[in-house]
Amino acid sequence: MKTFNPLNVSSKFAICGLPIRMDTYKYCTFGCKYCFSNNREIMKFDKNIQVANLNWLEKKLDKVLSQHKFDDSNFLDVLIDKGFDFHCGGMSDPFQPCEEQYKITSQAIDICNAYNRHILFSTKADTVYESNIRPDLHTFQLSVTNVANRTDLEPNVPSIDSRLSFYKSLKKDGFKVGIRIQPFIPNISNLEIVKMFEDADNFTLEGIKIVPQNKEHKEFILQTTGLKATDFTQMGLLNLKPEARLKMYEPFIEYFREKNIPFSIADNDLHHIGTNKCCCGDNLIHLSTNFNNTAMIKKYSADYKIDDIGYELQCDGCAQCKCNQLFTSNRQEGCITVEDFYNKRFDRKSSPFSPLFLYKPELCNNKAKVCECCNASITSGYHIIDSQEYFCSDDCLHSTYSPEEYMGLCENNQGYYENSLT
């Protein structure tokens, strides 16, 4: 069976308070039809379970935490040394059905427990298969999209009654447990979820996403939700337009505020809405970064400056860590360190960690897109999907991307010329 290194720094470190991503499996046997992770193009050629390399995990923690041997420029090692929580299950459920057979998550927990590492688990499961979980080290974020047992969407997910029982047992045993309504599915996800788990330690909402290159996935989501392709906008993946998402979230937000329930909106352009400095929920976190955009908003307001980020990066010891390896060569733009990355991209409206990226209805008014190079307002031009960049001409495009780099983006369905950008 193939193995992989279970700890990685997420390339979304600028917008995620828990950038240490821990996965114990690749591919997920829950088989949720809406899952953008399992429907990505990268998963197209290998639908077999891969498991975490536990020997690598033990050696990594021993080297960093026991021997204190690491390079200050190694981003992962610095984050581990600083004690930031691991987020387990961001890409594949740690307690999916195959855990009963392989016990990979259970073994990983035992390894991490020996070093007193704090872990937030994201799961749809109703059991931890006798893993040695501890309330002082572990918290849970249960993913719930509906309370109607929609097996057409989640064919292998336990019933809602079974998951509710699991939730209650965790709470009884002293664990902090949050509910993540992700994906928030229009016309399916409703307030009954909140009312069923009203004593949860946090709620997080995040909208449904479509993999644009996967025609079958796209058609399934549109048919299931009754939405049209024009209701979505491309932000790497296809996301519901922010005004539509916000309208759907409003009853939830009002309910949370009325009941004084901690909550977050995990959509990148709505991070300014909520009560937490980490979108997973502060009650579930032992230690999260101070330089992620949600934390920046909470401390400095939604108009935080690059100097504010610089200060927090220095405090967290991450400014000079290398991060270029987290991005494909055509997205590195000469950046080597975390500090380089922020300085290069902070002033772009296309950067999810920039205050300019946040959706503020009062400032929108259907403005034309702006060229990244010359700042001209444009209604047609080149569109780089992953970074949401726009260019008005060949000269402006090639000031950032060489012809070869742009062709590579086009081949990966990440670059287009659009006649209408309004």
Question: What does this entry look like structurally?
Answer:
The strands form five sheets. An eight-stranded mixed sheet has the order 2-3-6-7-8-9-10-14. It has a three-stranded mixed sheet with strand order 1-5-4. It has a three-stranded antiparallel sheet with strand order 11-13-12. The N and C termini lie far apart (49 Å). The protein has helices spanning 54-66, 75-82, 99-102, 104-113, 160-172, 192-196, 215-225, 242-259, 293-300, 306-316, 338-345, 361-364, 394-400, 403-411; strands at 3-4, 7-9, 20-22, 25-26, 50-52, 86-88, 119-123, 138-143, 177-184, 203-207, 209-210, 232-235, 237-240, 263-265, 369-370, 377-378, 381-384, 389-391, 415-418. Helix 1 (54-66) packs across helix 2 (75-82) and helix 1 packs parallel to helix 4 (104-113). The chain folds into two domains: 3-299, pyruvate-formate lyase- activating enzyme, CATH 3.80.30; 366-422. It is built from 14 helices and 19 strands. Strand 17 (381-384) and strand 18 form a beta hairpin. It is globular and about 60 Å long. It has 422 residues and is of the alpha/beta class.
> Number of helix segments?
14
CATH architecture of the largest domain: Alpha-Beta Horseshoe
Beta-strand share of residues: 15-25%
The neighbouring-strand order within the major sheet is: 2-3-6-7-8-9-10-14
**What's the alpha carbon Rg, rounded to whole Å?**
21 Å
CATH class placement of the largest domain: Alpha Beta
Provide the residue-averaged pLDDT: 91
Shape: globular
Structural class: alpha/beta
Number of strands: 19
Largest sheet: 8 strands, mixed
How many domains? 2
Helix content: 25-40%
